[in-house]
Design goal:
alpha+beta, Beta Polymerase, domain 2, Methane Monooxygenase Hydroxylase, Chain G, domain 1, 2 domains, 7-stranded mixed β-sheet
Length: about 375
């Protein structure tokens, strides 16, 4: 049986900052809203179009955003999803569909706080999709921008390789599905609902990590346990930072009086709002559990220290009689009782053993150990 070792997996822990993931701290805190972050253009852009009515569905994939321009004037509903953001492509699509430059700026920006805006006849929603990296045990984010207009929905994603919208694509192929029978705002609801539901999957992964960590701390905690506590607390910060603002986003949609939103769809947005409130409460619960785990770790450290100090104190007490007896008989006086007696040595050694045994018996009776 061949076993392939990966020394780099363990060598990284020899460097203390790697153990406590200080680089991750910089990634989480490196957000400055007063500066405009420069986004690098994606190497590849994938455009997928779902143009549908209750009876028909046309699906198309392309690498050219100009292929989407024809869907601006159709009477059907068009979902245009652009994976991989390039400045020129975003500006071209937004110009064609009459989207304000402020929204274009938000689409091209990075590290934005989730929000909802209504600008010149379109609704804009920005939030993050979350993924759990099984290898690094970290929460990864991908910014997604969704623009709702008359009979069209534009979505802009950063990573062409992944998203959470496959269930929606599957439902679009079903003629009798709600998403096919409803207007474009229902498609927006479906997308937001899918993103919010994916948050619970991430929290389940973090919950498993917290449970394993708690068992480790109870069983045998060490410095690596403290490092894991520190890491998970950082991931919970990422989780809460992305979940909390979505409440305001959905609240804005519910209160909106835009003509783009059908009154029948409001109850669906309220359902998503309930889900995000539940997700936020769970994130708070996870934070409380992590604080409890940290307190448990500190308690275990103090308990071990107390046990060590107790053992050292008992040993010191047991050696005290021998130290006193040896000190007395070692004094430089001419006359010391039993110093010249034939059994004096055995008498002194006997006392050195008998007195500690009596002390052990007394300590045991009092329950000191």
């Amino acid at each position: 049986m061949n076993v392939r070792l990966k020394p780099e997996k363990y060598l990284k822990y020899l460097y203390l900052p790697n153990l406590f993931a200080t680089k991750r701290t910089g990634e989480i805190l490196a957000v400055n809203p007063t500066t405009i972050s420069q986004r690098e253009d994606s190497e590849k852009t994938v455009v997928s179009v779902y143009d549908y009515t209750p009876e028909t569905l046309h699906e198309k994939r392309s690498e050219q955003v100009k292929d989407t321009f024809q869907y601006k004037e159709t009477n059907s509903i068009s979902w245009i999803n652009i994976d991989g953001i390039r400045k020129a492509d975003v500006e071209a699509v937004c110009e064609k569909y009459g989207i304000h430059s402020l929204i274009v700026e938000d689409i091209l920006s990075v590290n934005q706080r989730p929000k909802m805006d209504e600008v010149e006849g379109v609704m804009y929603c920005l939030l993050n999709m979350l993924y759990f990296n099984e290898e690094n045990k970290t929460v990864e984010t991908e910014q997604i921008s969704i623009v709702l207009g008359t009979n069209f929905v534009l979505s802009f994603q950063e990573d062409p390789a992944r998203d959470v919208f496959d269930p929606i694509r599957h439902r679009l192929h079903i003629t009798k599905s709600q998403v096919r029978q409803r207007t474009a705002d229902y498609l927006l609801y479906s997308m937001l609902d899918t993103v919010v539901d994916s948050y619970f999957l991430i929290m389940e992964k973090l919950g498993e990590q917290i449970e394993l960590l708690e068992e480790e701390v109870v069983r045998k905690s060490n410095k690596r346990s403290l490092a894991r506590i520190n890491q998970l607390r950082k991931e919970l910060i990422v989780l809460k930072r992305n979940i909390a603002p979505v409440r305001d986003l959905l609240s804005g949609l519910i209160r909106s009086e835009s003509e783009l939103l059908d009154d029948r769809t409001t109850k669906y947005f309220k359902d998503v709002y309930d889900h995000i409130i539940q997700a936020f409460d769970l994130s708070e619960n996870y934070r409380d559990v992590m604080m409890s785990v940290q307190d448990l770790y500190l308690s275990n450290v103090n308990l071990r220290l107390n046990e060590v100090m107790k053992v050292m104190t008992i040993v010191t007490c047991l050696l005290a009689p021998a130290t006193v007896i040896g000190g007395i008989f070692g004094m430089n006086f001419d006359i010391i009782p039993y110093s010249h007696h034939s059994f004096g040595f055995y008498f002194a050694v006997g006392l050195m053993f008998v007195i500690p045994l009596v002390m052990l018996y007394v300590f045991k009776r009092r329950g000191w150990f």
